[in-house]
UniProtKB/TrEMBL annotation:
Record-given protein name: Uncharacterized protein
Organism this protein belongs to: Zalaria obscura
Domain of life: Eukaryota
């Protein structure tokens, strides 16, 4: 039986959402951006071999009105992705010389406020697979909406977009990870677009939104985008590669590029008449998009001279055409009209979230990702527990005897060095987080400071849990100094060791964001720290170059020193001979030799270690951790890809 009261509440809620979608409350509808145009876009780069300038785009013009969808098309290498980046003010990532005049409502676009009115959807979905659809939109809102947007309004915007994009049935479904199936590819693309619409942009840039989708899913994605654009008067510019006939027909305008030049720019409805008039008729029952892409594609030409002649004719026909003149005239009229109107940039209200909101959202999202995604820490915890059982059973119940002193030292080295070495397992999770950061940074959401802080905070509790679990098993099985103070000191050193090791992973993976290379570089660095840490060769005997250049900045050396002092600084070891008549045969000469005992401080003196310097070593180790994180921040600050 239905619940009338519940139905009334549900319909009332839906009514509010539907009202918000179409009204000013959610600010989804564009009311002040009339047109977006560009003139004389030219991009050149230096050829890596000849060092000669190479033209990527040459004198490209265009204009799009509010409520229109423009398709950027062309064969691979035609310059469509470059043009999209230029129009979206992402020229910093191009490493090229750019000449372009970009206009909004006929007035020059202000780069400082451009991001506030625009959004960019990457070709690859920048989504966290361990979040649900609703959580994804919620975090997108928390990272981008200003503080004056209330929690209720944020929730309403999220529900409005879920409804508008037909995602009600998947709202609480995970996006999907390699080991947990989630929503479909087409639904992921819709979530990506919806996440960018959370800030109510007036201009939407889409980079290959149908890449990797079949024709049905592609039609579905473009159909939803078109509905949103028409309903809310948005301007949508999308690069797209060879759409189906039905998908192509949904676009209002087409800008066709070939070898960096314009082959066609105008309404989609005039594509066929235009090419017919130019003497290149589109065959009956053939997909127009497929024909024109193949027509201007030179990659697989057998007769190069014939194709070049054909392309020259296409470009020449375009420049002489009525549509080329109409585009320039329309843009000129907009510029003349814009000079007489109030600047759209007069709307200067804050459009970004504050630093505290961004930081808390990033930490919250990272925690959710880390405990749901088994790859981040779950596998590492299992791996470290296996390592603890192996270590504890190999060095099982060592007695405090002279014959076991070297075994204790070996166990200390193994516990610190190999725990540090196994931090390489964090590389895949960090590279995934870094890729997401790069995409969100390009969209102007936050910078490397917030990312590094969130990454550090998220790792602390997990690394402490790993240190504690490992120590509970390995420390007591191996029979290290059996006091609570000694145990927790061991845990402290292991915890700092893991923090330093993970900070090293962050630094190296930021420098070389390629899994195999980062893995090799991290393994090499850990091998270096093992060799110079003081176990393989005592610090006094270490070659001066390795000692002064690497030993004193080796975090493993301070962990090893700290664990050695923790074990030997307050413990004695028996050294009675097998035959009591021969007396004691102590390998370390200490004050307790007459009692057939070895003072552990005698072992420490052989390595040059002294008690009472734990605070200094902890301070140096924290300084090394800070150094790694600062260097990682600098790398992320300067790298844009």
């Amino acid at each position: 039986m239905s619940n009338p009261q519940g139905d009334r509440r549900r319909y009332s809620k839906m009514s509010d959402i539907e009202k918000m979608i179409g009204g000013d409350y959610a600010q989804l509808t564009n009311t002040n951006i009339r047109s977006f145009g560009w003139k004389g876009v030219t991009v050149t780069v230096k050829d890596r071999v000849s060092q000669q300038p190479k033209t990527i785009l040459q004198d490209v013009n265009g204009v799009v009105k509010a409520g229109e969808l423009l398709a950027l098309m062309g064969p691979s290498g035609s310059g469509k992705s470059t043009l999209l980046n230029v129009l979206a003010h992402r020229v910093s990532s191009l490493n090229a010389s750019v000449k372009a005049a970009i206009y909004i409502n006929g007035a020059p676009a202000n780069p400082r406020t451009f991001r506030k009115i625009s959004a960019y959807v990457e070709q690859e979905d920048a989504l966290v697979g361990s979040l649900t659809v609703r959580e994804t939109l919620n975090f997108a809102a928390r990272l981008s909406l200003p503080s004056n947007v209330s929690k209720l309004e944020r929730i309403q915007r999220i529900e409005a977009l879920i409804t508008a994009f037909g995602l009600q049935g998947q709202a609480n479904t995970l996006i999907g990870t390699p080991i947990r199936k989630g929503i479909s590819g087409g639904q992921k693309r819709r979530v990506s677009v919806a996440a960018q619409l959370i800030t109510s942009p007036k201009l939407l840039f889409l980079d290959e939104p149908t890449s990797g989708l079949d024709s049905a899913a592609s039609f579905e994605v473009i159909s939803f985008v078109k509905d949103i654009a028409k309903k809310h008067n948005l301007i949508v510019i999308s690069s797209i590669h060879q759409p189906s006939t039905s998908t192509f027909a949904m676009f209002d305008k087409l800008l066709l590029l070939s070898q960096g030049g314009t082959a066609y720019s105008g309404p989609v409805s005039e594509v066929q008449p235009y090419f017919d008039a130019c003497g290149f008729p589109i065959p009956l029952y053939m997909n127009p998009a497929e024909f024109i892409i193949d027509f201007v594609n030179t990659d697989f030409a057998r007769d190069r001279s014939e194709v070049d002649q054909q392309l020259n004719m296409v470009h020449s026909s375009w420049h002489k055409s009525r549509l080329a003149t109409a585009t320039v005239t329309e843009l000129t009229d907009e510029m003349a009209r814009g000079s007489m109107e109030t600047d759209y940039n007069a709307e200067t209200y804050e459009k970004t979230a504050n630093a505290w909101s961004i930081q808390t959202a990033l930490v919250h999202r990272s925690f959710i990702k880390s405990y749901r995604d088994i790859i981040a820490y779950g596998i590492r915890i299992a791996m470290y527990m296996g390592l603890a059982i192996m270590m504890g059973t190999i060095w099982l119940r060592l007695r405090p005897e002279q014959s076991n002193i070297q075994s204790f030292i070996n166990a200390i080295f193994f516990g610190g060095a190999f725990m540090s070495f196994m931090a390489v397992a964090y590389i895949p999770a960090f590279l995934e987080d870094r890729a997401l950061f790069m995409k969100e940074r390009a969209n102007g959401l936050y910078g490397p400071t917030s990312f590094i802080i969130a990454n550090f905070i998220t790792g602390i509790p997990y690394l402490f849990i790993i240190s504690m679990l490992f120590s509970i098993v390995a420390y007591w099985l191996s029979n290290f100094r059996p006091t609570a103070q000694a145990f927790f000191t061991w845990v402290m050193w292991l915890f700092l060791d893991l923090i330093a090791a993970e900070s090293l992973v962050v630094l190296i993976s930021s420098m070389v964001p390629i899994f195999v290379v980062a893995l090799a570089a991290t393994a090499f660095a850990n091998g270096l720290w093992m060799c110079t840490g003081g176990f393989m060769v005592s610090p006094q005997a270490l070659n001066p170059f390795w000692r002064y250049v690497f030993h004193y900045i080796d975090y493993q050396s301070y962990v090893f020193q700290g664990m050695m002092v923790n074990e030997f600084g307050s413990r004695n070891y028996t050294c009675a001979a097998a035959n009591n008549e021969l007396g004691c045969n102590c390998l370390y000469d200490t004050d307790l030799a007459s009692q057939c005992l070895i003072d552990g401080n005698g072992v420490l003196s052989g390595y040059g270690y002294k008690k009472g310097e734990t605070g200094k070593w902890v301070g140096i180790l924290l300084g090394i951790v800070l150094g790694y994180r600062v260097l990682g921040w600098l790398v992320l600050y300067w790298r844009r890809s």
